[in-house]
């Protein structure tokens, strides 16, 4: 598959994933104090059900396209300290692997019935911070050089 096709697929999947995380952290968490508890619970269940159905597929597409793109840059990844691009891409990949670890942790806790609100909030906040870093690195890779 051509790099431009992989990039386009990757960007659309990233928009879906990052948009969902931004919505949950910046909007959903902030309306909690303005919405009755039972209504908020119903809303969280509905959004959670949809996210659990959709996000595994979004992540599959996102990571698959990312792996294809990384393969294209395998020379830079083989020697990440030889270029700013290689180093920034390596850091970006490390952050994406951490996000995947967060996803696995959340799914494992959920299946065991141990995913509590505090876990959910902390995982989402951490993923949000990771996503901000990933987005900044995605741009910096092409504009920062040393």
From TrEMBL:
Parts of the chain that traverse the membrane: 6-28, 49-71, 83-104, 125-144
InterPro entries named in the record: DUF474
Keywords: Membrane, Transmembrane, Transmembrane helix
The organism's place on the tree of life at top rank: Bacteria
Descriptive protein name: Integral membrane protein
Upper taxonomic lineage: Bacteria, Pseudomonadati, Pseudomonadota, Betaproteobacteria, Burkholderiales
